[in-house]
What does this fold into?
Amino acid sequence: MRHFLIAAGLCAGVAAPCYAEPAITTVPAAMRRAPNAHSHIVQTVPANAQIDLGTCSAGWCSASWRNLFGYIPAFAVADAGPPMIASPPPPVVVAAPPIVVAPAFQWGGPYVGGGFGYGWGRW
It folds into this structure.
């Protein structure tokens, strides 16, 4: 039973980062190592940057940006919503050439050989 619990804990620990949701920073924010204003700054995240947001509590959100993990103040984070999908371009309309139906008879010119000569010929 003990081995099963250890394996389940390891699976949950590996799968937990997969539950991050996309979010946008509203203002430039300092990503910190711990959820307090006095901890070491990991990196500075600019405004309008897309981050992967973890959980938020007590005014801080766990997040990652450019493969670095830390905590960002909750006031600097906005929900990104569904990912933006560009609409497909409008279809290209190509005008088809007009269909010309030739008559069954035509006016022929000089013809050497058997068959029709000057006058109306047949295709």
In short: The helical segments are 2-15.
